[in-house]
Amino acid sequence: MHTKDLVQRMNLEVIYGDTDSIMINTNSTNLDEVYKLGNKVKSEVNKLYKLLEIDIDGVFKSLLLLKKKKYAALMVENHGDGRFTTKQELKGLDIVRRDWCGLAKECGNYVIGQILSDQSRDTIVENIQKHLIEVGEKVASGDVPLNMFEIHKALTKDPQDYPDKKSLPHVHVALWINSQGGRKVKAGDTVSYVICQDGSNLGASQRAYALEQLQKQDSLTLDTQYYLAQQVHPVVGRICDPIEGIDGVLIATWLGLDPSQFRAQQRQQREEETDGLLGAPAQLTDEERYRDCERFSFTCPQCGTENIYDNVFEGAGTMIEPSLLQCCKVSCGGRPVDHHTQISNKLLLDIRRHIRKYYSGWLHCEDQACPHRSRRLPIFFSRSGPVCPSCSKYTLRPESPRCSRSKTTGSDGLGHF
Description:
CATH topology of the largest domain: Topoisomerase I, Chain A, domain 4
Number of helices: 12
CATH architecture of the largest domain: Orthogonal Bundle
Structural class: alpha+beta
Radius of gyration: 28 Å
Shape: globular
CATH class of the largest domain: Mainly Alpha
Number of domains: 3
Number of strands: 18
């Protein structure tokens, strides 16, 4: 912060700062002048320290700065005599990680190349649109090589030592590979897999197969919707987030996906941002606040009908009465309220069940397509809660439903029966 303040007093703009570095916008396209400014900053800062010094790490022609330690840039390499070349440098972006397929990385690299180019914004948007439409058409027609869909993930331990094998696609495939004989995969090895349609309704993480299985089994087909929606779309969407004129709905449309689900996600994101500014809990009605709560249910001892209760009381004005006063099956005529011992026991069992689930500590991503499930609390949080470390886009939620609540609440916020 001291270095930042010093540089700003030199009438230079600091656009990014980190533990051991700062980035300065020189507003100059003259390479000699840029190095002159850099050496001046270096000299002034190093005067203040005896055991620490800074140096010019590099010069960028253009920079796309997304988040802390996440950027794409064109680095200038000076060859002397006024000659220089540029090369792309990527830090912390999705496309440098191995758990994204080759198709997603190819699309991400193309989009970054366009954004960092000298073209106008309209031309960049138009080129990205054409490329994504072409990618969507090629995937649908089967013109993309199968190896471009492979996802690679390393094993941190031997496959049989994982406790949640079914929810981890690379572990599931590793176990199949080891069951075939031949060389066994073990901790430290990288496993490659593809997501297929196999006729089941299982989640994507449980439909992972080795490429060899896809090529040999007629019952398997590539899950193209998964790759467009959960591989290409997130990578391109995060890169294009700061670019005016491109949003998640447009990207989905260009890829040939149904834009409605992305429109809903976009609306929810805007609402969350607005709620964060306005103080969300104070703005919500009871129906909205408790819409995901599990309702209290009680089976009528007289007729066996399951009664589900939203509130402690029902009716309004002079007609208000306890919800448990009579069975919901009119012809029964039973009065659940007369069985207060059974009601008390059922409520106590429900409370204990939710407490057990709460202390088991399982969290899952609110995006149904994301397979992430963990008991470890991530270090990054948004206004809505802990950010999923797998997709970095959605919030982690407790795996169990929230405890039953009622519109009629006490000072502790809990519903009372």
